[in-house]
Amino acid sequence: MAGLYEKLILNRVSLDDYEKVMTIRNKEEVFDGRDRLPFQFHRIVGSSNTLAFAALLEDDSIAFSLAYIIDNGKTCVSKSSRVATKHEGKGVMKWLFKEMVDVVKASTGVLNLASLYFYESEERRTLHLTKSKAITTVDRAFTEFYINRRNLFTSKEKFSINTTSKIKLLDRQQLEVLLTLPHTSASLFPECRVVIDLVPYRPIKPSVAYMIQTTKSVIGSNLDDANSSLISFGNYSEVYQGLLYYIDLYGNVMKNIEAHIQYHMERIKNIESESDNFVIQIYCEKHANIDLVLATLKKFGFGLEENNPEYCLCVERNIR
């Protein structure tokens, strides 16, 4: 194994390296065909808060990972990692991750490293915690649904919710206020993190610019009552399996969840996509009323994927 490590070279990935990165792994093999990188590569790699790295072996890219720099430059999050099939289990990703973190530490003021793990049982959660040596953790539950676009249109007509009277579109300034109001922020984000698209931001003003960049819509309801407030962040991307729409929920899902979901479903209706196959992922707090979320999506005609709900654990540790 040491011989392989000696041959590896760390390469800083640029916008011109799209084809090299895409050849590392087939689209259908990465994240069960839900990989967004092939469709968002240029936006993500070109972002001011993103560093991208590849492991080269004899000039071929065999592994890749992104480093998101968030929290006003204090936290690094690794995402979109992949390794060539024939090099799986050989420690290549471990090597790339270490080299990447060393570069980030040397070139930025990053203090903390955030990592993401998925689990279905408390035993797996405990294992991840033990290995990560975390100082901070955030648990999120997520459910996944699927539907054909034509069935969504038919089922949506069953609803007569006056969506605009129950929800409010939030702009950057309004979101900044919500994040920094002590009582409201503590109620909506009790773990002091806002996990959007699997990136765990601190609820501070500098984070808002990136939150807005990575979401198509941010809506809220009952914002005058911290205990009843509900905020949802929505975004979408083409993926190998069709179109993926993901929603991050924060707050009291008992209040206006149906209006929030309908708003996002109306967004789906207007998305131009070559595929009629839609997948929707909803992330919420682990203790939220998951059954209510499931019931609401089923009303819209969505079928439930197997093994729902599952859980995501965001861990953070100090690297200085």
UniProtKB/TrEMBL annotation:
Domain Histidine N-acetyltransferase C-terminal: 165-285
One Pfam family it belongs to: Hisat_C
Signal sequence, renumbered to the chain: none
UniProt-listed SUPFAM superfamilies: Acyl-CoA N-acyltransferases (Nat)
Superkingdom of origin: Eukaryota
InterPro entries from the UniProt entry: Acyl_CoA_acyltransferase, Hisat_C
PANTHER family linked: LOC100145250 PROTEIN, N-ACETYLTRANSFERASE DOMAIN-CONTAINING PROTEIN
The protein's name in its UniProt record: Histidine N-acetyltransferase C-terminal domain-containing protein
